[in-house]
Structure formats: C-alpha cells, structure tokens
Amino acid sequence: MKNISSIQNPFIKELIKLQEKSRERRKKQRFLVEGKREISLVLKSDYLIETVLFVNENHLNNEDILEELPKDVDLIQITKEVYQKLAYRESTEGILAVVKTKNFSLASLKFQSKTPLIMIMEGIEKPGNIGAMLRTADAANVDAVFIADPKTDMFNPNIIRSSVGCVFTNQIATDSSENIINFLKKENINIYSATLQNSNEYFKEDYTKASAIVVGTEATGLSEIWRERATQNINIPMQGEIDSMNVSVACAIIIFEAKRQRNFMI
Is the Cβ–Cβ distance between 261 and 210 less than 8 Å? Predict the structure, then answer.
C-alpha cells in the first residue's frame, strides 16, 4: 500500500486539477468522488473505481467501504493535510475515490419498461438544480434522465455533492435537443414540455404511456424546438403573486403526478 504525505506529490497535483477543472476531467476521463455514501453508490453502479485514498486516522471508520472494494483497486494512505487539499466538502469521512468517466450516449440506453418515464433537462446550468433533479429522478425511479444541450460537466463535484451520489443511480444520456427529440419520436415516447405557451394544466394529461417530462431554465424556459415539437405543452397553475417556481421543484411536481397516475409502479 502506498503512502502520500505531501501536497506537492505529482499524483496529488493531478487530482487537484481533476477536482477543479472540467477540462482536465474530460482530458483524463477521470473524476473524484468523496464520502462513504457516494463511494458505496459507485460500487453498486457500473462505474470503474481505479484508486481510493484515505486518511489513516479514519481507517476504522472506512473499513466497511475498503473491504467492499474490488481487489484491483489501488489503495493510498494520505495525511489530513493532503485530504483537506483534495476534498470538496468539509464533512466527509476522510475517503476519496478516483473514478473513470462514462459515455452518456443515447445508444447506451436500455429501458426495462415498455412505457418508460423520462426526465429531460434542457440547458440547465446550476449544479444545485441538476443535483436536486437527479435526486427526484432516483426517488421516482424514472427510467432515464436526459440532459439536452448540456451546459455543465456532469462530473462537476457540485453536481455529485448536491445529487448525494444520484449521478450513479440514474441512467443518464446527454445530447443535442434535436437528437434527443428524434430519439423520442423514433421510440414513440410522448413529449410533455413544461412551458406557459399553448399549454394545458399538467394534471389534465395522461402520463401512463411512454412519456418524457421536459423542463428548461428558470431564466428563459424551454427553447422553441421543445415547445413546437411537444406532444403537449403543460403548465403548473400558479396561485400566488409570482408566475414561476424553482425548476427542480416544478420538475418534481410533474414527475410525481406521472408516478401517481402509474400507481407508483415502474
């Protein structure tokens, strides 16, 4: 087992770049995951863990995770100083993993249901909103999450943190809006675009067939292509003074209406 005690170590410097820069994550096809809960979710997924770094003083607290690791994972003991330089959060348990990135292509998707329920985010930039919607997707056990015209690296540490690891529990695909719409049309999946223009109240629609719920940014909403090519545009009626709500909240309301109509079955 290796030991690293200096933040000047070349490998540690490389990991700091992975944590801080999306360009490095794309180039190296690696990213960092910190915390026991998140690493345990990686272990249950089809992601590949290459290296685990842990603070020796926390060894006993992390023993259960360390025992679950595949035999070919490299283990490195690090000091608290090194860990604090690498860690994105203050309250994790002194353990990090270096994980290989995945291809989020539409071609890689596999639907278990004949009537899949899909969540689609178009151009969402804020990692907190993306993370919150990934948590909703996991809670509702949707069949897939599509990121249309992505603006943010899906392995951004803010997304992993705010999703509490649901990046690893959801089936995710990223592509252009045009390609995703063509995919949905080919698969006979109804498109319900959340927008004020030419829309019906969301609870009046039937989501029991194959359905995709689409939401856009709070600032500009969905682009024209989603409004025009939707099976039906939908809205959530506002009863107060403002005319909108946080996109992650709006998405959750519609997704769980779809689950209610399906009797909370897959």
Answer: no
Alpha carbon of residue 94 to chain centroid: 23
Longest dimension (CA), the chain: 62
Quick: pLDDT tens for 240-259. 988 789 999 999 999 999 99
d(CA 104, CA 167): 11
pLDDT at 214: 98
- Signed CA dihedral, 140, 142, 147, 152: sign only: positive
Structure tokens at 58: 């926390």
Instruction: Record the tokens describing residue 177, joined without a space.
Output: 């809006």
- Rounded Cα distance between 12 and 24, Å, is 14
The strand order across the sheet containing 144-148 reads: 172-175, 144-148, 117-122, 211-215, 190-194, 232-235, 199-201
